Amino acid sequence: MRAAKIFVENLDGLGVLETTSQMRVDLYGSLALTGAGHGTPNAVLMGLEGETPEGVDTKSILPRVESMYTNKILNLNGRHAITFIPDKHLIFHFRESLPQHPNGMRFSAYDNNGDLIATNEFFSIGGGFVVNEETQLADNVYYKDNRVDHADKVDTSRTDVPPSIVPTGTEPSAAGASQPGSGAASNDVSQSALLAAKTKSQTITAALPFTDAESLLRVCERENMSIAQVVFRNELQWRSAEEVIARTLNLWNVMNASIQNGISSEDEYLPGQLRVRRRAPGLHRRLMAGLAEYAGFGSTPNGTQGVRFSADLAKPKHGSVQPAHAAPPTRPSRRSLPALDWISLYALAVNEENAAGGRVVTAPTNGAAGTIPAVLKYYLEFICPSRNQMEQDIVEFLLTAAAIGMLYKRGASISAAEMGCQGEVGVACSMAAAAFTAVMGGTVEQVENAAEIGMEHNLGLTCDPPMGLVVIPCIERNALAAVKAVTASQLALNGDGSHRVTLDQVIATMRQTGMDMMSKYKETSEGGLAVNVPVC
């Protein structure tokens, strides 16, 4: 969606949107092989109509897409109607990949004569990030003196987006509409203004830069800061403190809303031919009804009791051993471990919402969107000492998780098309483990240790969803990763921070493992569960 939105905005800014009569979208590699299951075509169509992931009404997507297939009309950027036949103009290249990245797509715009007007290639590198060059106008309609330039509308004082995370062609200096230049002289002036704006934006750097876990720990030690404080200080280079806090809290609001939406859904099944039942609503009802009584815990996160153990449990009772062929003794059925059930509930809710096309936070990706919210929600409901501290802990949790995510993006990848699921759910587990350790009062060394443990035991995780649907194994896998993150944190907190395997070493291992992994296990649905789970 983001890539398509960027392209149509580029068409608009270059002055060729109104002359566009046809559009063609080519999806390559992993995007083609799992695109239908991942909802990629729908997202592309929404982006071409000018929608954004943050602003689109998710409930309107399916009716609008159905209308496009029926009426063959697409409203480019929300205002310019063209004929668009999805089955003809949205093309899947199942056996072809663009050389730069397995998640590649190409957008092409044509005029009424069928001549190419503009084209660009985009690459989805995970986490909602897209990489692209500047959209190119075709030679037959490109005239330098009349080239539409964005520089006249550039605010050279705006530096609220870090250039390191803004792909080429989408930095603040490329935003906004403009009018065609009046000649070569004015074009030269606008080019100079554009260059000056870009230069100013790119000269802003992080106040406390780090490139790997080792350098991050050194910064924390030198500055006597937590990992979250380092990230916060760096963000102040581009945004005010109030904006950083507001944006971070808004991320949590979206995460929490996805949990609530998943819990309250009245749909019995998730979309798709797999016919997988939603489990979050039923699990939530059982927990709230008091069926989570176990070991003295209450049925809700409110008020726990002490756990009582009997010394008699350690003493074997004479004659209690059954004969080899006797019926096994009956015992009360205990189906609930309260902490595990609540964590699992939260993760299931988010990923069921994702599978149903609802809004989630890419944390770090949509397929791994449930792990971090689940662990944070668990902390806030079960552990956070007071409501007055919640906002502070939310910010610390998410900024710590962000720092760990940065390390994986820089040292490896968070794209399942490159790394398999270790690059998505594995990274989410690592991020959540680190963040949970931070809000539990761990040292920076313990935080790094928890992140390492979280990934070490996800190495080699494959991405092999049947039919490309983010259902199996994605939904359950997020629940398990959330529980594993808490376990990793506890292991780290019960140590002194020293450990044999470092986070940098495990990130390097993840990258090497991903490079060695066969492509059929990297988000192509051509191996593993994808070929062994019958679809009926």
TrEMBL record:
UniProt keyword annotations, A-Z: 4Fe-4S, Gluconeogenesis, Iron, Iron-sulfur, Lyase, Metal-binding
Region (Disordered): 153-187
Cofactor: [4Fe-4S] cluster
Keyword Iron-sulfur tagged: yes
Ranges for domain Serine dehydratase-like alpha subunit: 223-530
Short name of any one Pfam family annotated for the protein: SDH_beta
InterPro entries xref list: ASB_dom_sf, Fe-S_L-Ser, Fe-S_L-Ser_mono, Ser_deHydtase-like_asu, Ser_deHydtase_bsu
Chain intervals with Low complexity compositional bias: 172-186
Pathway the protein takes part in: Carbohydrate biosynthesis; gluconeogenesis
Span of domain Serine dehydratase beta chain: 1-134
NCBIfam families (UniProt xref): sda_mono
Full protein name: L-serine ammonia-lyase
